[in-house]
């Protein structure tokens, strides 16, 4: 990780769960991190908590589902720091709903899932690439999901994976398309891209998604990973030599049955 010391990373969805753990891990190695989040005050609190870390944390309010918000955020990063060296597309959303249910509210929820999970990755990657190619190197990490490779059958806890899996399958395909686009470009040996696909991770995402019980109740009967496990996987891929590109990394909880 020494090669990334003093470099600039952008982490989306930096206000909770996996995002917080990724930010903490990166700054511990001396990387300076700009945390994008709608709840920017949470990132500001994190920056204060980590003020004595080897790297620095900066907060910027950004809605990755809004292309103009993304453009403004990356323009700020370029003005302040000259560009981006590492992008971690971590922002994600899930809702406890079914595609077959009806109503305008449902349609809005489904659209939000696609806009955040898939279009957000595309908007941020495009904006980051515009600065990385000026710097002649970079690394893009997409926090994907096992749900982007397999669709678990509904359970009492999860009545449907609705369009969430479709959005994550989209990330899997988009990651490979981007890898190919990079491979045939002049930046093929300079900018790498990785999809990291975790199984169940214990975060408050299920609570935000509308699970009727508590987070502990949801995870009481299933194996799960912790956010720091995913952060360690980000550090792992960043630590690989430039000649190696880990294009897909799946991480399941031990004994997960998906």
Topology:
Layout: E1 8-12, H1 17-28, E2 32-37, H2 40-49, E3 57-61, H3 67-81, E4 86-89, H4 104-135, E5 138-143, H5 164-183, E6 191-198, H6 205-208, H7 215-218, H8 227-239, E7 248-251
Parallel strand pairs: 1-2, 1-4, 2-3, 4-5, 5-6, 6-7
Helix content: 40-55%
Distance between the termini: 33 Å
Mean pLDDT score, rounded? 95
The order of strands across the largest sheet is 3-2-1-4-5-6-7
Q: What is the strand tally?
A: 7
Order of helices and strands: EHEHEHEHEHEHHHE
The whole-angstrom Rg is 18 Å
pLDDT under 50 segments (min length 5)? none
The main sheet comes to: 7 strands, parallel
Annotation field: number of helices? 8
Gross geometry = globular
What structural class do you assign from the helix and strand content? alpha/beta
What fraction of residues sit in β-strands? 5-15%
Q: Can you walk through the features of this model?
A:
- 43% of the residues lie in helices and 15% in strands.
- It has 8 helices and 7 strands, in the order βαβαβαβαβαβαααβ.
- It has helices at residues 17-28, 40-49, 67-81, 104-135, 164-183, 205-208, 215-218, 227-239; strands spanning 8-12, 32-37, 57-61, 86-89, 138-143, 191-198, 248-251.
- α1 (17-28) packs across α8 and α3 (67-81) runs parallel beside α4.
- α4 (104-135) links the parallel β4 and β5.
- It has 258 residues and is of the alpha/beta class.
- The longest helix has 32 residues, at 104-135.
- It has a 7-stranded parallel beta sheet, with helices on both faces.
- The mean pLDDT is 95.
């Amino acid at each position: 990780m020494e090669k990334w010391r003093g470099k600039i990373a952008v982490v989306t969805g930096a206000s909770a769960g996996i995002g917080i753990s990724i930010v903490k891990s990166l700054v511990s190695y001396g990387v300076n991190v700009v945390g994008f989040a709608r709840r920017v005050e949470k990132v500001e609190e994190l920056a204060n908590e980590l003020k004595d870390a080897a790297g620095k944390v900066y907060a910027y309010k950004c809605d990755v589902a809004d292309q103009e918000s993304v453009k403004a955020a990356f323009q700020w990063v370029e003005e302040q720091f000259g560009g981006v060296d590492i992008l971690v597309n971590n922002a994600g959303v899930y809702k406890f709903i079914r595609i077959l249910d009806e109503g305008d509210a449902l349609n809005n929820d489904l659209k939000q899932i696609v806009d955040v999970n898939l279009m957000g990755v595309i908007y941020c990657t495009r904006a980051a690439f515009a600065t990385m190619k000026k710097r002649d190197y970079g690394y893009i990490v997409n926090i994907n999901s096992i749900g982007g490779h397999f669709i678990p059958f509904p359970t009492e806890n999860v009545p449907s994976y609705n369009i969430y899996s479709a959005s994550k399958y989209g990330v899997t395909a988009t990651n490979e398309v981007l890898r190919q686009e990079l491979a045939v470009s002049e930046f093929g040996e300079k900018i790498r891209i990785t999809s990291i696909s975790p199984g169940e991770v214990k975060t408050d995402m299920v609570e935000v998604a509308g699970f009727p019980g508590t987070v502990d109740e949801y995870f009481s009967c299933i194996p799960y990973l912790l956010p720091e496990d995913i952060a360690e996987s980000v550090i792992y891929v960043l630590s690989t030599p430039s000649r190696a590109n880990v294009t897909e990394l799946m991480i399941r909880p031990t004994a997960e049955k998906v």
